[in-house]
């Protein structure tokens, strides 16, 4: 699996990245969406990965995805910035056209 991050998206990610969250996670968010197949493809900063995670090929960040969630994503994707929001897309179409900076920045910290 590959994730290309456009230059504009890289600049925006660098501007909002919290120091304590150095990694990115591709995530299929099903909270409030009903059943497990109704969800939203998203991405956020994190400070950990688990044994069930797989690394996603990327030139800028360490990016991870839970191996069980891979089915909801495409083998090759692009994270772009449109000036207001991030967009996750592939050659097959738009996966999420409206990922806010605050959603990516909020991320997920490891709970101990």
Structure overview:
- The protein has helices at residues 7-16, 101-106, and strands at 2-5, 23-29, 40-46, 53-56, 63-66, 76-81, 86-90, 93-99.
- By secondary structure, the protein is mostly beta strands.
- The protein has a single domain, classed as HesB-like domain (Hypothetical Protein Aq_1857, Chain: A), CATH 2.60.300.12.
- A four-stranded mixed sheet has the order 1-6-7-8. The chain has a four-stranded mixed sheet with strand order 3-2-5-4.
- Strand 6 and strand 7 (86-90) form a beta hairpin.
- The chain is globular.
Q: Helix and strand string, N-terminal first? A: EHEEEEEEEH
Shape: globular
- Summing up helix and strand content along with how strands pair, one would put the structural category as mainly beta
Q: Total domains, how many?
A: 1
CATH hierarchy: architecture: Sandwich
CATH class: Mainly Beta
CATH fold description: Hypothetical Protein Aq_1857, Chain: A
- Can you say what the CATH homologous superfamily is? HesB-like domain
β-strand number: 8
User: What is the terminal-to-terminal distance?
Assistant: 29 Å
Main beta-sheet annotation: 4 strands, mixed
The Rg value, from CA coordinates, equals 13 Å
Beta strand %: 35-45%
Which stretches are low in confidence, meaning pLDDT under 50 for 5 or more residues running?
A: none
Mean pLDDT: 89
Biggest sheet strand order reads 1-6-7-8
What is the number of helices? 2
- Residue share in helix: 10-25%
Protein name: Core domain-containing protein
InterPro entries: ATAP_core_dom, HesB-like_dom_sf
Pfam families: Fe-S_biosyn
